[in-house]
Amino acid sequence: MTHSADDTIAPDRTVRLLDTTLRDGEQAPGVSLTPDEKVEIARSLERAGVSVVEAGSACTGAGERQAISRVTDLDLDARVTSFCRGMESDIDLALDCDVDGVHLVVPASDRHIEGKVGTSHEDNLEKTAELVAYAKEHDLWVEVIGEDGSRADLDYLVDLNATAVDAGADRICFADTVGHTGPERTAEAVSRLADVGPVSAHTHDDLGLGVANALSAVSAGADLVHCTVNGLGERAGNVALEEVAIALSHVYDVETLDLTELYGLAQTVSRATGVQLPPNKAVIGENAFTHESGIHTDGTLKDDKMYEPYAPETVGRERRLALGKHTGRAGVAATLEEHGVEADEEAIAAIAERVTELGDRGRRVTDADLLAIAEDVTGDDRERVVELLDLNATSGGAVPTASVRLEVDGEERVASGTGSGPVDAAVSAVREALGSMADAELDSYHVDAVTGGTDAVVTVEVTMMRNDRSVTVARSEADITRASVEAMVDALDRLLAADQQPLAPADD
What we know:
The chain has helices at 35-48, 62-72, 88-96, 110-117, 121-137, 154-166, 183-194, 210-219, 241-252, 262-273, 294-302, 329-338, 345-360, 367-378, 422-434, 480-499; strands at 16-19, 52-57, 79-84, 101-107, 141-147, 171-176, 199-203, 224-227, 290-291, 320-321, 386-394, 401-408, 411-418, 441-447, 458-466, 469-477. By secondary structure, it is α/β, with parallel strands linked by helices.
């Protein structure tokens, strides 16, 4: 079959994905995977339906070979392979790990043939044929990768890969090793190589063209794409598996794996590598299906597809309506409805205005914040876990002291405390009364300007965190100590209610 650079990707095409997170991905600075982590990731890749798992480079050392062997012992449906340099000893080490196949990497560009390896073009062809034959004699599946293929002379690249196929290679790979080229050159090269034998594409993202080059390669005849989860890899990384998979599915109706596994796979790799997912990352970033803008939120509520290319459930995600400075009334109303809070149009408008004010100050508005604002605006009360009944604070003596009386789940608790000032003393008293229930952190404490006149009022805003939840509460009083304690108690009350855990007795 003759391929041309302007071929399109037909929906009946069979395209598979090769994942090299455990090899090329691990070469990202600061990433080092233990054997257990490699096993966990390999199992996740298997659940997703990845066709080939490159488990590592057997030549790296004994620890790496142990990790590769652990992956081969899983007896995956996926083919498990090892990266090999152009030497028989590397193939022997891969055989020791009981892999199904190897990726033989040989130089393709003049820079690599003459500058890196120091050989001639003719000797490079001869050596490649010998290595392929040696690997095939040992019953290995063999893919030959011409390193730096995107910068190689195209006629020589074709000769090199034809030599590999003639020697028995199962497939050949076009490698844009340094993310150097664009879709046009990729299509030209792959279309030539596809006439030689089954061809793969290995693209990097140095120019931000990883996905474009991968799709261009597929359109020109490639039927296997090398990827890494989350786009991990050296420099700017390899092309991201999740991006190639969703692009082929959504744009071309070509299915490569189980898309619903993508988000879980991304999280598994992120935890193992310690590399956090960028919030704006396609498919798996926190913001990919999060809507804050009033226009977008309103449109999304009317029609799921209004501002999303595909449903979040497609890739194992959920849609989220964020609250912030851009939130409109529709977003506020929808979030309140989720929590079973009823509010009329006037109240929703007032709540939305308060949410915007918090967002303008750079704050992320949580659901707990919204509920606190809604309660304040509507005047509705709720069943409280903790309520402040009485507060006394003195600062006239040498050490400021305070005492509080709280109602905790229907039980009165009284405690006192000291501190560097009356507010500090009152907070200590509250913590003493609540005991282990008060294991929340005060994330921020802000006092607004005091109003003038005889009825001067101060507004205190606190943000508290507990069990990865946060809530911001503001209280206005003539007395800064009372405003501070009421805000803190209200925040704790909301956090405790959100936990929905049995209440602990006060510490003795």
